[in-house]
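Supplementary Methods, section 5.1.

A reviewer requested that the exact input to the structure prediction be made available. We therefore reproduce it here, unchanged from the version used in the analyses.
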Amino acid sequence: MAAEQQKQQQQQIMLRFATDLKSKSEGVRNKAAKDLYTYVSTELREVSQEDLNTFLDDFNHHIFEMVSGDTNSKMGGILAIVALMNADVCNTGTRISRFGNYLRNNCLAQANSLDLSVIELATKAIARLTQVSGTYTANLKFDFIDHEVKKAFEWLSAPERNEGRRHAAVLVLREIAFCMPTFFFQNVQQFFDVIFHAIYDPKPQLRESAVNALRMALVVTSQRETSSQSR
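The structure derived from this sequence is encoded cell-by-cell as follows.
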C-alpha cells in the first residue's frame, strides 16, 4: 500500500513538472527546470538506483511528449533534458543517446519551421551533452557530434536558401567550436568553405549569428597555431 502511494505521489510530481515546463510563461518554465534539477539532485539521491531509474524512465515519456509538441512544450522538454544532465543522473549511453536523438529529430531536424528560440536552446543543450561524463563513451559522443557537424555543413552548402536550417547550422557550429575545439579544428577548413553562405545571407539576425560562429572559429584557429608554435 505504501509503495502504491509513493508511486502515485511520484506520478503527481512528474505531472506537475511537465505541466509547468510546458507553460507559456518563460519564468514558469525556468523555475520548473530548476525545481526538477533540485528534486533529482536531493530527493532522489535518497532512493535506490532502481527507483531512480523508474522515475527517469517514466519522466522520459513526458519529455518525449514535450519535444514533440508546440514551441513552449519543446522549450520545456529541452530545459528538462539539460536539468537532468546537470543533475548528473543521466550519464549512461542509452539515456544520453535518447536525449541526443530528441534534440536532433524533434528540434534541429525541424529547424525550417521552428521558432529561433527553440533552435538556440536546442544547440546549447547539444553543447551541454558534449560535456557529460561517465559511461557515455567518447565514441558515442564523437559519432553524435560528427553527425551534427556534417549535417550543418550540408545545410550551409545547400544551393537553395533555407533560413531555419542555415541558422541552426551556424548555431550548432559555434557551440561545437566552443565546447570541442580540438574536434572542430579538424573540420575548420570545411567550415571556412561554407560559412560565408550565411554571412552574406539577406537576414541581419542570421548574418550576426554567422559572424559569431566565424569569430569563434578564428579563436580556435589562433589558439591552435599559437600552441603549435610554442612547441
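The longest helix spans residues 204-229. These observations are discussed further in the main text.
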